[in-house]
Each structure stands twice: as C-alpha cells, then as structure tokens.
Give the backbone structure.
Amino acid sequence: MNDINEEEEIKIKNRIHLINNSKDEIKEANTLPEVYNILDKLIDCVSFFYPQITCKDKCFLCCQHSNVPVLTSLEWEYVYNHLLKLSKEEQKILIEENKKLFSKHGLDLKRLHFTLNLADNDFKLKVLAVLLPKFVGGSCIFLKKGSCSIYDVRPLKCRTQGYTLVKFGSYTQFQTCVPESYRLEKLLKEQDSRKVLIPLSNDFEERIQELISGDSIAYSILPVWLYAHTVNDELVSEANILPDFEEILSAFHA
C-alpha cells in the first residue's frame, strides 16, 4: 500500500472489514430493504477487489438459463407489491408469458418447487442436476430487452449472483454462471490460493429467514409465486405469503 495515500488506505481497510464482518453487518438489518442495502455495499467492495468479475447490469446470461430463482415469502411480497403498480396491460403480458411457461414446463416447475423445499441438500442437488437443464434455452419472464424489468425489487438470488459464494449441502462454490466460474477459477490458479475476499450468500438468506415472523416463511420460484397469484388471468389484490402450493399445482401431474 506504499503507492496510495492514507485516505485511500483507510477506504481499502474499511472494505476489507465490511466483507470479513459481513455476517455481523447483516444482523443489523431489520427490514428486507436494509438487507439489500448492505448487500449493495458489499458488492461494491467485492467489485473493487475483483474487477475481473463481469456480472454487471445488462449481463443476462443467468436470466436466460438459470431462469427460475427461488425466493422467500418476504421477498415475494416485496416483488408483488411492485407488480401491482404496473399497468393492466403490463400485468396481462406478464401473466400470458407465465402461462406459456407453465404450458411447456408445468410439471417441471412443480417438481422444482417441491425439490427446493426438501431438507436433504445433497439429495436436492442430485434432483436439481436433472431438473435445471430442462430450462436451458428459456429466459426469466421478467427479462425484457436484455434487462431485468424488476431490477429494483429483484430477489436475493439475483442480487448475489456473481459476487458471493454459496454453501449448498457439502459444497461451497462461486454463485455464478459457468463461464464466469471458469474465469474465477483461473484467477484462483494465478494467485496460487483458493482464499477469496467474498461473502457467503447463505448469511443473507439466514437473515431474511429471521425477519419472517412465526410460520409465515415459504419458498418457491418466481413463476410459481406468480402462478399462485393469478386468478382468471388477473393478479389477485394482495400478496398471499402462505399459498396452498399443493392444491395450486395439483393440475400438473405425470
């Protein structure tokens, strides 16, 4: 740090401190927007130390292939309140696109929903390895002209993409697409160490779960949440944070 001034050195140390203590920082968040605000600060820090990361706004590779992000009831309520503010025409287009997705992948979406709610993470990984490739070639229904149409209220899974690690079962890996993962693995090889200054997305997930009161927590993927809130080709008047997914998805069976 000999070639930087004292002020810059302090900023760098503060960034390192924020990342290293991210789990404690997140505990200070008492609302979902506060969780997202802390995450934005962390992403700025990670981007500073790893400018090689190419996951930026306008990159939509993950939106094209991993196009079924999971989110909690709290996150869905946040998204849905935004959808209710859209024009009737915008809502109609969104509902039609979701219907097309279900007409093609209804059973797969149902299986994906119930797989994501399994407790056995290692078994979950095996099932997801079979299910997720079926969606390759499609795109998220919220992807419009190469950009996220709900960017300001997008769920945690979308926000953390590229800038966090994720621990899933017995595995810890970069939460990113395959091409980006290869680039980051090359970086680790060049630095001759697998240590990285990147936070765990699991810590954010845990904090969001803690913010959900009592038994009000539920998990599903964006298309299923939207399907559960569509009646007679219209959005229902308010978010239902505990839908009867078993009943709602009962029409889709082998």
About this structure: Strands lie at 70-72, 143-144, 147-148, 165-168, 171-174, 219-221, 230-231, 234-235. The chain has a mean pLDDT of 90. DSSP finds twelve helices and eight strands in the chain.
